[in-house]
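F.,

This is the one I mentioned.
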């Protein structure tokens, strides 16, 4: 009877453990699903904010371009486009950094990465757009086309590179490590130079001492 009771007790304990594991697994899966839903919602909100600020930046770019190129005819296509896109970049970066992604803890580094993107995009869009305008395309249509390409490519650049805290942390960590290694190498070089100077001074001192000791002996020999 005792054996049967012990067996029943062990079975009940195992069943309780299994039920507890099932509950924990279900809870974990529910947390994962909730986290995925929250992440999806966050991404949708980010995209809508980015869309809103990009559209406002697009309005600034288009108005400034039309003012310089179409309405006043003050500039040819490419200088008007260049000025308008710079104004758009300043507006777009400032507001997306503050309200959309809220990640770039190191603003100078983030602005440097944005500058890298535009160092690639602006020459391509300027030369490409100028070529299209040169073969007869409408200047405003070319500008709108470049704005659409800019919007799509910059969204992914900003989201996964500029405002990616993990990536920025790796870059900063590597920069700090390189600085520390450089300082360590400089310190070791300085210590080595100091050691060499001490050895040279010691050798000179020994030579002077030896000369001082030899001179009286030479003087005695001369006498």
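My design for it:
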């Amino acid at each position: 009877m005792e054996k049967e009771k012990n067996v029943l007790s062990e079975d009940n304990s195992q069943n309780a453990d299994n039920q507890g594991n099932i509950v924990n697994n279900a809870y974990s899966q529910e947390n994962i699903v909730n986290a995925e839903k929250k992440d999806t919602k966050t991404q949708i909100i980010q995209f809508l904010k980015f869309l809103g600020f990009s559209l406002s930046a697009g309005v600034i770019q288009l108005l400034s371009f039309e003012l310089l190129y179409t309405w006043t005819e003050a500039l040819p296509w490419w200088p008007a486009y260049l000025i308008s896109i710079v104004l758009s970049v300043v507006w777009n970066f400032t507001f997306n950094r503050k309200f959309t992604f809220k990640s770039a803890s190191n603003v100078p580094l983030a602005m440097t990465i944005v500058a890298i993107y535009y160092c690639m995009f602006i020459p391509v869009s300027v030369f490409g757009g100028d070529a299209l305008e040169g073969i007869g395309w409408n200047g405003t249509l070319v500008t709108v086309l470049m704005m659409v390409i800019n919007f799509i490519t910059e969204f992914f650049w900003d989201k996964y590179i500029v405002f990616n805290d993990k990536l920025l942390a790796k870059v900063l960590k590597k920069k700090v490590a390189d600085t520390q290694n450089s300082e360590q190498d400089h310190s070791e070089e300085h210590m080595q130079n100091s050691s060499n100077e001490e050895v040279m001074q010691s050798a000179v001192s020994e030579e002077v001492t030896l000369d001082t000791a030899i001179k009286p002996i030479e003087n005695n020999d001369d006498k």
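Residues 2-71 form the longest helix (70 residues).

Talk soon.
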